[in-house]
Specification:
The protein folds into two domains: 198 residues, Glycogen Phosphorylase B (Rossmann fold, 3-Layer(aba) Sandwich), CATH 3.40.50; 179 residues, Rossmann fold. Helix content is 43%, strand content 17%. The chain has 14 helices and 13 strands. A seven-stranded parallel β-sheet has the order 3-2-1-4-5-6-7. The radius of gyration is 22 Å and the shape is elongated.
């Protein structure tokens, strides 16, 4: 028997829910839902506490889902596993995330249509964004358009995706929403005192007269840390003094060894530090003079928002995510993701600001994050889930 008070959340990597969706879990539990979660237990991506998920009432199911849509064999296995979960647990609602999670979740909506199952899909960034390779636009656009007809609610996190999503034909009565990302926790990310900043810098061995540039993000082709390494390499080649610049990267991932080799080849071991995955990340952001965020694409970009909320200016690549909050010259600087010269010039601009100009920029950094406060996301998500509740009463 299918229960209208049971919901299944689907993602690819298992740490996703713990990192981004615990507020939604809280809302669902307050509304009386039994929350099930399906993901690949062996691809965590983010450090998480499985026992804490259980303490928060989450029932975890391992599935052999892969992030790549081209892993058809494995994802067919995952679909069979998901069908068994829906059938055996009597799931009434599905909330799916990430491209493959969204694809499989909506295939379930199609297969279990006769049960009245409802499907919510949150896209954290369509893969057919403006400027994407033609292959992305052909494959992912057509896939999203096809699966839209099995979607009851489609949630986007930036304006470009919202406009595109509204062009799709959803299930009858379906709706498209835009939320300000997963929500910024302003109780955790806020400006710190100068004393605390000095403490963080001392702990990292960074002197007062050193400019500390930071990146936060996994080591992937998309996060584009290589552009910053190339920028520093060019500065060294051109004879610029890098003795008062430190670049730190908080993150882990497949490309770490390759990036470390690039640093050695450029002779930048004294300039660049790999800190690994760090939580909490506030001591690193708080110690930084600027965050550099060179991603090729972002759905929104929480690392940049967290830095801005702490009053740390951002040098960002221009993409649909950063366009939601970056204002050139006000809370930092922007340039194309592959513009090494642009990053270099923006770094020099930031380093040359007077104390008064820097204070004005830091103040604006903080103000620019207010619309992304988690409370606004929670209000919208509660409204969406309450719609499910009302729908339940009608059945």
């Amino acid at each position: 028997m299918f229960s209208m008070k049971k919901i299944l959340i689907i993602t690819t990597v298992s740490g996703f829910l713990y990192k981004f969706e615990m507020d939604n879990v809280r809302i669902l539990r307050e509304l009386g839902y039994e929350v099930h979660y399906a993901a690949n237990e062996y691809v965590p991506n983010y450090i998480y506490d499985k026992e804490e998920l259980t303490r928060n009432g989450v029932i975890f199911h391992h599935i052999d889902i892969y992030q790549s849509p081209y892993e058809r064999k494995q994802n067919r296995i995952a679909l069979k596993q998901l069908k068994a979960i829906v059938r055996d647990e009597g799931i009434g609602y599905i909330h799916c995330h990430t491209p493959v999670g969204g694809m499989l979740g909506r295939m379930l909506g199609k297969d279990y249509k006769s049960t009245g199952i409802k499907v919510i899909y949150t896209t954290h960034g369509f893969h057919f964004y403006a400027g994407a390779p033609l292959k992305n636009r052909l494959i992912f656009y057509n896939a999203e358009r096809m699966f839209a007809k099995y979607t009851d609610i489609l949630i986007t996190i930036n304006s470009e995706d919202y406009v595109n999503a509204r062009k799709f034909r959803l299930k009858p009565g379906g709706q498209v929403f835009k939320i300000p990302g997963v929500g910024l926790d302003l109780k955790k990310f806020f400006p710190i005192s100068e004393e605390k900043r000095k403490e963080f810098r001392n702990n990292l061995g960074i002197s007062d007269d050193t400019f500390f540039l930071l990146s936060v993000g996994e080591f992937s082709r998309n996060k584009n840390h290589i552009s910053v390494i190339r920028m520093l390499s060019e500065m060294k080649r051109d004879g610029e003094d890098l003795s008062r610049i430190r670049y730190g990267i908080c993150g882990e991932g497949y490309y770490r060894a390759d990036l470390e080799n690039k640093v050695k080849e450029a002779g930048l071991e004294d300039v660049i530090t790999f800190y690994g995955y760090r939580t909490p990340v506030q001591p690193f952001i708080g110690a930084a003079d600027a965050l550099i965020f060179p991603s090729r694409r972002e759905g929104l970009g929480m690392a940049a928002l967290e830095a801005l909320a702490m009053g740390v200016p951002v040098i960002a690549a221009d993409n649909r995510g950063t366009r939601e909050y970056m204002i050139h010259g006000e809370n930092g600087y922007i340039c194309p993701w592959n513009d090494i010269t642009g990053y270099r010039e923006n770094l020099k601009k930031l380093m040359s600001l007077t104390a008064e100009e820097l204070k004005r920029m830091k103040d604006f950094c903080v103000r620019s994050t207010e619309p992304f406060d988690r409370k606004y996301v929670s209000l919208i998500m509660r409204g969406i889930y309450e719609r499910l509740d009302q729908d339940t009463l009608k059945r």
